[in-house]
């Protein structure tokens, strides 16, 4: 049921928590959260204004935080880019991560056949040293 504060939480905050939960699930998909993944999660939690208690609640009860896809193209691409960053950050890409990226891409409203194309472009640009914002600019 959650606290009274959680019941009156804004849609944007709920969406941020759902997105953060998806990032945690992606980090965990290979069975552990590596130090690099923890670092990226910490930076994203800070950017999303999530407290340590909120992060712990999401870790403890992921089922309470569903994905709420953004309605605009820019935010959808930004989230997708963050998913790809999370997949790459530990230096090891496993098939289960790529499969989850595909599911998230569909949930974000991307056409299934375009997801691998977008993913490959994002990987290429991130590996070239572009920032998340620079990569986003190429898609918008």
Descriptive report:
This protein is mostly helical and 140 residues long. It contains eight helices and no strands. It has helices at residues 4-7, 11-28, 35-47, 52-60, 73-88, 95-107, 115-127, 132-139. The chain is globular. It starts with a helix and ends with a helix.
Topology:
Blueprint: H1 4-7, H2 11-28, H3 35-47, H4 52-60, H5 73-88, H6 95-107, H7 115-127, H8 132-139
In quaternary terms, these chains amount to single chain
Helix content: 55-70%
Which strand-content bin applies to the residues? under 5%
Head-to-tail CA distance between termini:
38 Å
DSSP summary, beta strand count: 0
Short overview:
With 140 residues, this protein is mainly alpha-helical.
Q: What descriptive keywords fit this protein?
A:
140 residues; 8 helices; 0% strand; globular
